[in-house]
Amino acid sequence: MEDPLNRYYRYPIARWIVRALMRTPVTPNQVTLVQPLFAALAGYLVTFDDPRHLAAGALVFELRSILDCVDGALARAKRMASPAGHAIDALADWLGVTFLYAGIFWHFHLHPPPDGPWSAVLSTNGILLLALLQGALRSFSSDYFKLKYCSIFERGTDETVDVLRRKIQALGPSSSFFAHADVFIGRMGHLAFEHEWFDPERSRSSTGADQVKQLIREETSPLTRLIGALWAISNGDAFLSLVVLTLLTDQLWLGQVFFATGGVVWIVAVIALNGWFLRGASRRGKLAVA
Q: What is the pLDDT of residues 57-74, one digit of tens each?
């Protein structure tokens, strides 16, 4: 479910950087916290209308994306991984996207795009807002389903509810803002995909034991592999990779129109397919026995 550019390009570079940082006092959280600064610089460069500034913005944001791979790898290498670090990383990712899109919004405020078929229905800001929201939905949903599938296939149980419950139980008076933000995002994911407000005492996963057993049996099936491949090109990192590509090719507006139209249809279809896949696991198991 990993973005191909992460797997084959960013993580290999990240591992090289981690080897260099292992001999320094640099911490994973420090790497995480510098990422929004690069995103803010990229957002500033994107406000200009010439291809050189747009390409420079793309390259600066790409550096942020590489550092986003570095912090997790460094945390594992230095044995410094923690729930707080994960929460800070999640918030830094959201800040990075916010800063980049602030620049994109301002770019089109200063340099309005030409009218098109969409102009009678949506304003420029409407197109940009839809593009941003579908990007958020990509990130939001891919994180949720990644945890669900990885916990089922690796540990034989759906841990989406248990992980959120442990995060909530760990909150206390001294908990950081990042921890509270991480829990809020988790609650929103549960509300969106389990259709209930999360209750630490009563909430349970909608993926039953029979479904889990069938999904484990189907782990290497063509359908499961297709689901994984679809998420690899549909997650939040893949969306940002496409945004960077549109900047490099000076096709920023065309990309935003695509995200606001075809991108919305695409991610809704991927989520619907996953819902069908999970709900149908019990039925497929019964058919296999019959």
A: 999 999 999 999 999 999
Q: What is the pTM of this model?
A: 0.90
- Give the residue numbers spanning the domain of 65: 1-112
- CATH code at position 80: 1.20.120.1760
Instruction: Specify whether the CB–CB gap between 176 and 167 falls below 8 A.
Output: no
Among 206, 211, 209, CA closest to 161: 206
**Residue 100 C-beta-side C-alpha neighbours within 13 Å:** 30
Domain count, the chain: 2
The tokens describing 230, both together, are: 């679809």
> With contact defined as beta carbons under 8 Å apart, do 227 and 276 qualify?
no
User: Do 152 and 137 touch, CB atoms closer than 8 A?
Assistant: no
CA distance 100 to 263: 18
Distance CA 16, CA 11 (A): 9
